[in-house]
Amino acid sequence: MPLPNPWRFIKATFTPPRGRSERTTFSLGGRPIHGRQPAPPSEKTGKDRAQSGRPLSTSLEKNERLLKQVFHIPATSDVVFRNITCSVPRLKVTVAYVEGLAAFEKVFGSVLQPLMLLSPLRKGVERNPVKHLKDALLANGQVEEKATVEELIESIVAGDTVVLLQDRDRALVVETKGWEHRPVSEAVTERIVRGPQQGFVEVLRINTALVRSAVRSPDLIVEDISLGVRAKNRCALLYMDSLANEKAVAELRRRLNGIDTSEILTSGILEQFIESSHSLLPLIMSTERPDRAARYLMRGACAVLVSGDPFALILPVTLFTFLQSPEDDYVRWPYGNMIRAIRYIGFLLALYLPGLYVAVVNYHPEMIPTSLIMAIAASREPIPFPLSLEVILMYGSFELIREAGIRIPSPIGPTIGIVGALLIGEAAVAASIVSPILVIIISVTAVASFTLPNQELAMYTRLVTLIFLIAGATLGLLGIASVTYIMLCHASSLKSLGVPFLSPVTPRRAQSSYGVPVVPPWQAGKRPLELRPKDTTRQPPVARLWDKGEILKPSTRASALETGSPARGSQEGGQRGAGQPKQGTQASGSNRGSSPGEDGRHQDGTGKQPA
Amino acid sequence: MYLLGVKVLYLFPTTMSEKAGSSAWISAAIAAGLGLLGLWGWVLWIGATGGKGFVASLRETVGRILGDVTALFLAAMLTALTSLDIRMFVGGAVIGIVPEFPIDALLYIAILSAAYGAWLGLEAVGRAATFFLAPTLLSLAVVIYGVSRTFHLSELMPLWGLGFRPTVLQGLANAGLFGAVPAVAIVKSYLRKPEEIPSRAAAGVLAAAAILIAALVVLAGVFPYPMSTRTVEPLGVMARAVTLGRFVQRLEALFTFTWFFGAAVQGSFAFMLLLILLSQLSNTGTYRPFMPGLAFLVFGIAGIPSDTLRAAEVLDAVFTTTTGSVALGIGWVLYAVAIARGIGRDSGRPRQGIAAAPKGSEPVSAQKARRA
Fold first, then answer.
1. Which of B140, B158, B163, B312 is nearest to B224 (CA)?
2. What's the confidence (pLDDT) of residue A22?
3. Partner residue facing A364 (CB), from B253, B260, B286
4. CB-based contacts of A207, cutoff 8 Å, min separation 6
5. Where exactly are the structural domains of chain B?
6. Cα–Cα nearest to A586, from A568, A563, A607
């Protein structure tokens, strides 16, 4: 066995040889950057080559035989091939679908019944039977014409119904997806008190519909992209055409189309395929909430939904995005700032507390007040283990309980909390394995980690806490300082789809409203500038017109619509159209049911403005 | 900018007070003025040479040989500065927080941290520095507040200390404290907004001068002359004396924790300057191959002084009073030569960013096309 050559490894690290693929560099900015640039759109990937496809034959039997061969008929029992005869136009048709994936009601109502029973009722026949079937017979909202075998295969496994025609090299694909799925319910991983409670499900079209119901704008683009070569899954790329940065969208589209793998079944796997850095820090956020996805779309970000996964991927994001909860914006802004501050403190506690405790007690006990250090020393006196080992034992035990608690069956779920408390809190202390104060430290760390609203950041925190623990145990505060410096430099070098990861703190973008604090919604005039949206202005400086004594006249409202400003009169709960009463405008506070005239005065002529 | 102030607080107040007495702060102001003057010369030269790389601009101004010699001189100065600064900080850390650790281990940690920051690039270091500025300034403010009880403004008298002439001479001698201002010229081709160099660099020098002057005022007020000349590490001594309340005392470890960031940022930035110089001198498109050798060199030089005081003395002799002052004046010389030779601003703007890829490697798509 040949020995490894260290020189070759060193040389390869610092001077990559020609031909080795290098990571492309991507930036949202306008300056040219050095490094390998993204490939032009015409460059075909392996996936493209696989999808170029075999053309259909004009022989119905041949096409049917080919498809049966692909689907391993008769070994496979749930793929149905139904040969029927269409009356008008008179031709043989083969209908293929997957039982269980396709909704039989749609298959019957959109395909079988029109072709077999209702076709004679249709007067006038197109010369092209394919066109006739597509335009006049197949009663479905989505009917497409396909010409390759691979496209038909992809449609069948996606739940659509394929209609093969006699003597035609074209087939029709009718949308008939309708397999059993979980109903829309509460988001499990992102619970909030106030705000929408819906969560995504495993069906792609339901998820896109949930987002559409939140973002009621024709500018929302939902692009379907196929993933996987052997097992084709679908994902949807969502973005606001009038807001999202074009370079970011193009880069994301390029990454999604540039995946050459057998299958991608979940968003977690897709996330790892499209992230530009394999850092411990997550660069893509996942969310189970449609409202949250909608909010980020309205800021200029992009979302990716994967069929079969109830999580949406949001990018580009920053570190501060992971520390935000949708509830911050749903409650009043002072409360939002308070809970966000608690969350930041929780993040820092979860990261640093165990490491700082070990560092200070081991190396810098002079910092601790005398009475406290005496109490710590007294509690640690019977403990046989060094402090570092004690902390690692406790932290490891807590992680075991946390993992067990996720997978434990629900009926006995509460038991694990009691067992954990008994094990760690009482028995370990009584047995002099750990000190009581360490139980408090680990408990506070655990509770602090539960304040993090995002699962990826919570996982990162759990891992990095160990690193800080080791650094603190080795070199005290100096070790923690050096690890902090290294990690902060690393975070500063990261970019999420071209956006610096520590934006908007650094690099600082002036007038960015989506920074660390919660901004009152009437003052959030700018979209996040670090995302470089097409339209950075979210609202004018005076958004609460009623507060300034201004009334939006009909002509002004129309011009506001033309310029794309939010149509103030069309939002829920704030309509001031004709016939809509203006609440509280009368001096007496009663609602007379009258609307303001053109001059802003009411019918009684008082013209009194709200206080 | 705060790097200068933090670094200087370690030991230089002692050496400055030795020769100027209670007017050390005035000498610092004189040194700052000279530093601004030197910066002005460099900024004028930057304006004359446009956006070209530093070494390319040097070669264009004074010719290839002299240009390379100048670059090597600055590289040597920065190497010594980096190494001895790290040695001084680590020595202070040994005194302050981890006395039982061997100095070599701490040097490893400091150099590795600084080298990693440089490996990631100039932008990463700059952005990380933004986070550390606030806690560093806060810690300095806390130290100053903590020693306010022992501060006496009367100790700053007489105003001219040991005399007007010694004060001015000390100021002239210590102009080299600001000898790192050529850094703005070294990085000029990598900045996003080079038009902001004059204002930002001047603000940095002024801020560093303000911190330096404030530190010297505090030092003179807390440790009056001649006690101040025997204080090896005045900031460390002051930090140990901080008492903010019954339960908040002996926080020197916490302060050294925050000051590590300043030292690490300074080290990373200095590494970055050296890497830029080396890569431009050797005409390579990447700086990473130089990193291990540079790290070893810095480690080796940092390990030479036997203790922190000796490191400060060497730094004072090598940098503050000699090479730093020369570095300040070089800017004016280069500008004069550039004017004399009629070098204008129409130099093209080079590519931005320091390339990590080796020169000559072709993209994969081009290779595929070539093979096809």
1. B158
2. 44
3. B253
4. A200, A201, A236, A290, A305, A310, A312
5. 2-371
6. A607
- The sign of the CA dihedral A436, A441, A444, A446 is negative
Is there a contact between A369 and B246 if contact means CB atoms under 8 Å apart?
yes
Burial of A141 (0-12, 13-18, 19+ CB in 10 A): exposed
Q: Do A492 and B120 touch (CB under 8 A)?
A: yes
Q: Would you state the structure tokens that stand for residue B53, as one six-digit string?
A: 């790389």
Query: Contact B6/B152 with Cβ under 8 angstroms?
Result: no
pLDDT at A466 (0 to 100): 92
| The pair of three-digit structure tokens given for residue A27, joined into one six-digit string | 């930036």
Q: How far is B9 from chain A (nearest CA, A)?
A: 19
Q: What percentage of chain A exceeds 70 in pLDDT?
A: 77
| Average pLDDT over all residues of chain A | 80
pLDDT for the residue A608: 40
Cβ–Cβ below 8 Å for A35 and B357: yes
Q: Do residues A179 and A143 lie in contact, with contact meaning Cβ atoms separated by under 8 Å?
A: no
The answer to whether A175 and A254 are in contact (CB under 8 A) is no
Query: Dihedrals φ, ψ of B185, to 5°?
Result: -75, -35
Overall average pLDDT of the A98-103 stretch: 90
Write out pLDDT tens, residues B325-361: 899 899 999 999 998 888 765 444 444 444 444 444 4
Q: How far is the alpha carbon of B108 from chain A, nearest alpha carbon, in Å?
A: 11
Q: A302-306 and A233-240 as β-strands: parallel, antiparallel, unpaired?
A: antiparallel
Containing A174, the helix (H) or strand (E) segment is: strand A171-174
| Beta-strand pair B243-245/A79-86 | unpaired
Determine the residue of chain A that is closest to B288 in CA distance: A14
Q: What is the mean pLDDT of residues B20-34?
A: 85
Q: What is the pTM of this model?
A: 0.79
How far apart, in whole angstroms, are the C-alpha atoms of residue A61 and residue A166?
8
Write the pLDDT tens digit of every residue in A379-388: 888 888 888 8
Q: What is the mean pLDDT of chain B?
A: 79
Q: State pLDDT tens for residues B274-301.
A: 999 988 888 887 788 888 889 889 889 8
Coil, helix or strand at residue B13: helix
Give the least confident one: A72-81, A215-224, A467-476, B9-18: B9-18
Q: For residue A531, count CB atoms less than 10 angstroms from its CB and return exposed for 0-12, middle for 13-18, buried for 19 or more.
A: buried
pLDDT at A470: 93
Contacts of residue A271, defined as CB under 8 A and 6 or more positions apart, other chains included, come to: A284, A286, A313
Q: Do A486 and B116 touch (CB under 8 A)?
A: yes
DSSP string covering A321-389: HHT--THHHHS-HHHHHHHHHHHHHHHHHHHHHHHHHHHHHHH-GGGS-HHHHHHHHHHHTT--S-HHH
**Res. A322: pLDDT tops 50:** yes
Q: Which of A22, A477, A485 is opposite residue B357, by nearest beta carbon?
A: A22
User: How distant is the alpha carbon of residue A8 from its chain centre?
Assistant: 41
Residue B225: pLDDT over 80? no
Task: Look at A477 and B257 and tell me if their CB atoms are within 8 Å.
Answer: yes
Q: Which of B254, B257, B351 sits opposite A32 (nearest CB)?
A: B351
Q: CA-based angle A149:A150:A152, to the nearest 5?
A: 65
Task: Give the separation between CA B56 and CA A585, rounded to whole angstroms.
Answer: 72
CATH code for the part of the protein at B2-371 = 1.20.1740.10
Q: Do A493 and B261 touch (CB under 8 A)?
A: no
Read off the tokens for B275. 């890497």
Residue A124 is predicted with a pLDDT of 64
> How many A/B residue pairs have CB atoms within 8 Å?
143
Contact A98, A156 (CB under 8 A): yes
